[in-house]
Amino acid sequence: MTAAPIRTWQGIRDEVRRRIAQRVWRPGDYIPHEVELAREFGCARATVNRALRDLAEAGLLDRRRRAGTRVAMNPVRRAQLDIPVIRDEIESRGLACAHAVLRRERRTPPAEIAARMGLTGDARLLHLETLYTADGAPYVYENRWINPETVPAALDQDFAACSPNEWLVREVPFEGGDFTFSALAAGPEAAAVLSCPEDTALFILDRTTWRGGQVITSVRQCFHPGYRIRTTL
User: Fold this and answer.
1) What's the predicted TM-score (pTM) here?
2) Do strands 61-64 and 125-134 pair parallel, antiparallel, or not at all (unpaired)?
């Protein structure tokens, strides 16, 4: 039993996570039913349900209808990834951030981008190439495609004052996305923009986000040589 009522789903989530980590409930164990937990924590059953759903999505619980909820036999360790605002990332290092839109056009994307965004036919997207700098040095070269069917307001933006990265994070909520990380040799264009020799190994992030079944944007970010990313488990 807990020493005091826990009335928020976050508090219940943290308590259940603690019990799993400390092996109060071991892998494969069935945990008490929602009604019992609600009685123990002094809260509504819906609050317990919200906490358990969050832990199931995190891979710590296995929930099956009419079979109960048990601790996952092999809990998944998931890294938390956020979509960073590049300006915040640069300024957190004590550097001055600036950005410049190198290209802005409306055109049909290449087949690879169309496939990634689930588009068919001759859809015309907003294409942007942007360079972000840190204290004047190249930091990220961004090649972005925005679907105006999903984000029509993007067509009215020149992105001179607010970068495409920051505008989308701030103005356009998303429901899901995927990330791909890779290392590629710098081609002539990336090498010129990032001021590095051709064939230099670059950290590449490809990201696609969507909302309501429609893709918002697909972007490739090429980071300066030596860039490192850190996340948490």
Assistant:
1) 0.71
2) unpaired
